[in-house]
């Protein structure tokens, strides 16, 4: 149905979320929101105070999803070496 991948070690009080993915046929049915809430609860219970993550600039669906979940944009990186797209960085304080 879907998965969410968090870093195993915090940097300071922050943790990186590497990826969140919902199977195509389950999208738009709040599965991603539930996965995100579960991940945030997991972090809070371990005293993690912020989650940061990035996605590609062209991923407008993910950008809308993260913003709806309360993540704010903290940086925009121009196209990195060998990448075809730039990246946008988000952060949420828990
Ligand atoms: C991004 C992703 C995880 C969202 O999961 P989801 O289960 O479809 O999201 P939800 O149903 O919980 O949506 C929550 C909110 O996010 C926003 N959102 C989600 N998908 C959206 C889309 N395609 N277009 C616009 N807004 C969207 C909406 O605001 C939505 O709230 P609403 O339903 O009240 O309008 C899913 O689309 C996905 O797996 N995409 C492919 C992988 C990916 O891009 N991952 C992120 C980058 S690593």
CATH architecture: 3-Layer(aba) Sandwich
Strand order of the largest sheet: 1-2-3-5-4
Order of helices and strands: EEHEHEE
* CATH class categorisation: Alpha Beta
User: From the alpha-carbon coordinates, what is the Rg to the nearest angstrom?
Assistant: 13 Å
Please work out how many helical segments DSSP would assign. Answer: 2
Query: Looking at the structure, what is the overall shape?
Result: globular
Structure description:
- It is a single chain.
- The chain is an alpha+beta fold and 94 residues long.
- Helix content is 26%, strand content 36%.
- The chain has helices at residues 31-45, 60-68, and strands spanning 2-6, 14-22, 50-56, 72-77, 87-93.
- A five-stranded mixed sheet has the order 1-2-3-5-4, covered by helices on one side.
- The radius of gyration is 13 Å and the shape is globular.
- Bound molecules: coenzyme A (COA).
- Coenzyme A is lined by residues 19-22, 27-33, 55, 59, 61-62, 64-65, 68.
What's this entry about, in short?
With 94 residues, the protein is an alpha+beta fold. 26% of the residues lie in helices and 36% in strands. It has a single domain, classed as Aminopeptidase (3-Layer(aba) Sandwich).
What attributes characterize this protein structure?
5-stranded mixed β-sheet, Aminopeptidase, 36% strand, 94 residues, binds coenzyme A, 26% helix, single chain, alpha+beta, 5 strands
